[in-house]
Backbone:
């Protein structure tokens, strides 16, 4: 980390301000984002990001220390990252109010809903995002089926992880399910490769390691701190 | 590699365990060499740091038989010890002693190996225990080991039942497994001195160390006295497992962003200014969100107050916690206001 005195853009919210430091890779996090609650961070970032890949947005958010290793925060990380990406792909009309609403809805599944309900909050988060984007309600026809099917697909992919729980992995797998749907239905071009977990060096005790499709062997301690892929306004 | 060896036992088990932790703290605070300490307790029940005292020990039987009750700093099993039990503590910089090993299980196995070799040499057939397990001979525990981490340091404490009084053990431990001693297993008298020599030789061989016999250092003595005063002589610790947050009278925990923002830096500066003449009585710990103590990463062995954990969980940042109570949050208080709060805590 270097001391710095130039104007820089925040990696999270994109705000430009005179930076008091800069990391070795040139990144800066503004004072407001450094002090944010997880909810404020997710809202501010997702309202401003121009990134089109929801996994990249979610990974960035999950690297922030406000987002704990495990917890309900991951439920709204999944829904808001997806809404932001779909807005940036210009697939749906998604305004800031929808991001706020998605947070409120995705906070509902309790901590441990994966085990208590048999429904991971990250998968439900994907359902919330599509439901809001596609304006689905209980009287909707085919679209209701689409949303239910997406949550079902995401849950199936997460269920293959087994346990113990990994909130980061569940978010990424749920969003990969969403990306598959966006590829097939809207012909969106995403990188086809399965992402590599960016948190594997942070969670050594509970990490599922080789039984997780996102795991790769690595001794690189800097994995998980690389913000360089992320685009901001 | 030179390793320090000290032979120090007090008649008071609480002093012995205070000294145990002091050795670890002193190594962190400037004692330059890894240290092996060989010691014995007089009659004592030694509780693990996480043990339920009421469920584990018959207090009445202890009082009747003049058996001390003390809680040690490490996790593990609760045991009875007397002068027939040999303790050996190894305080080391784990990464320097085992630079090539990432696995804690493997570190544990290597630390056990000298004891396995030493005990086996006397004729008891012993398997190397797995991480967290005790050494068993024919289903009975003959030796136990416990671990405590502090920053980059590790304390490995080994206890060998050489000729421990198993009759007293059975009277005072409520949740006992099956114990045995080396003497009873081999059906002959084994002296603790003989085991001690075998252990030291095995450690020297296993880790290629040369021992330098030294006395207790003034720093260790000072830390041990303070630990005894605020922790090991207290029922709060020995019976209720409540450890003081700090060895000083007041602990100020500042919870700030990483890197600290302008307001976070002001808060830290104001606290430092407020305690400038109170360094002997007030400890400041600056925790940075996601980056541990002073932004240095995980710091095993340094406790966080409940209020600090709540601040972390609730994203109450920046926050100032004084002796476990949230004093200020999300605002910069002038140094005078911080000092007033600290003086109030000191006066209590």
Residues:
């Amino acid at each position: 980390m270097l001391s710095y005195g130039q104007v820089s853009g925040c990696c999270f919210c994109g705000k430009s301000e005179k930076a008091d430091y800069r990391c070795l890779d040139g990144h800066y996090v503004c004072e407001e984002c450094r002090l944010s609650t997880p909810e404020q961070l997710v809202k501010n970032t997702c309202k401003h990001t121009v990134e089109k890949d929801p996994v990249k947005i979610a990974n960035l958010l999950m690297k922030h220390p406000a987002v704990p290793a495990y917890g309900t925060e991951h439920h709204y990380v999944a829904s808001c990252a997806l809404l932001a990406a779909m807005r940036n792909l210009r697939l749906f009309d998604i305004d800031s109010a929808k991001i706020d609403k998605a947070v409120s809805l995705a906070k509902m599944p309790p901590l441990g809903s994966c085990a208590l309900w048999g429904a991971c909050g990250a998968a439900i988060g994907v359902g919330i995002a599509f439901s809001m984007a596609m304006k689905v309600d209980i009287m909707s026809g085919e679209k209701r089926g689409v949303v239910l099917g997406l949550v079902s697909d995401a849950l199936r992919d997460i269920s293959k992880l087994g346990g113990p729980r990994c909130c980061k992995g569940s978010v990424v797998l749920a969003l990969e399910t969403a990306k598959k749907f966006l590829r097939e239905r809207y012909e969106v071009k995403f990188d086809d490769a399965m992402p590599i977990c960016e948190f594997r060096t942070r969670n050594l005790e509970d990490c599922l390691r080789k039984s997780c499709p996102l795991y790769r062997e690595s001794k690189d301690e800097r994995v998980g701190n690389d913000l360089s892929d992320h685009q901001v306004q | 590699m030179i390793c320090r060896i000290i032979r120090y036992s007090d008649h008071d088990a609480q002093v012995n365990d205070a000294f145990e932790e002091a050795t670890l703290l002193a190594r962190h605070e400037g004692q330059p060499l890894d240290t092996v300490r060989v010691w014995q307790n007089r009659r004592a029940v030694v509780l693990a740091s996480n043990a339920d005292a009421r469920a584990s020990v018959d207090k009445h039987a202890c009082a009747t038989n003049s058996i001390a009750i003390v809680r040690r700093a490490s996790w593990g099993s609760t045991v009875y010890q007397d002068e027939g039990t040999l303790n050996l503590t190894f305080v080391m910089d784990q990464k320097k002693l085992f630079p090539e090993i990432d696995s804690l299980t493997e570190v544990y196995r290597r630390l056990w190996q000298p004891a396995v070799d030493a005990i086996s040499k006397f004729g008891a057939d012993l398997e190397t225990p797995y991480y967290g397990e005790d050494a068993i001979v024919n289903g009975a525990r003959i030796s136990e080991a416990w671990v405590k981490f502090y920053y980059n340091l590790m304390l490995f404490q080994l206890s060998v039942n050489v000729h421990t009084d198993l009759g007293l053990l059975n009277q005072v431990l409520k949740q006992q497994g099956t114990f045995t001693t080396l003497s009873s297993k081999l059906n002959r008298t084994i002296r603790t001195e003989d085991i001690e020599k075998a252990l030291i030789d095995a450690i020297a061989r296993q880790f290629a160390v040369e021992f330098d016999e030294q006395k207790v250092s003034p720093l260790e003595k000072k830390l041990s006295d303070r630990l005894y005063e605020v922790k090991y002589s207290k029922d709060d610790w020995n019976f209720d497992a409540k450890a003081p947050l700090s060895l000083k009278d007041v602990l100020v925990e500042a919870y700030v962003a990483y890197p600290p923002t302008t307001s976070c830096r002001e808060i830290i500066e104001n606290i430092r200014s407020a305690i400038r003449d109170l360094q002997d009585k007030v400890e400041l710990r600056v925790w940075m969100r996601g980056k541990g103590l002073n932004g240095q990463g995980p710091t095993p062995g340094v406790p966080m107050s409940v209020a600090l954990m709540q601040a972390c969980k609730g994203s109450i940042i920046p926050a100032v916690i004084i002796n476990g109570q949230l004093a200020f949050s999300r605002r910069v208080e002038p140094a005078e206001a911080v000092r007033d709060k600290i003086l109030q805590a000191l006066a209590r």
Remarks:
- Residues 4 and 212 of chain B are 5 Å apart (CA to CA).
- Residues 104-121 of chain B form the longest helix (18 residues).
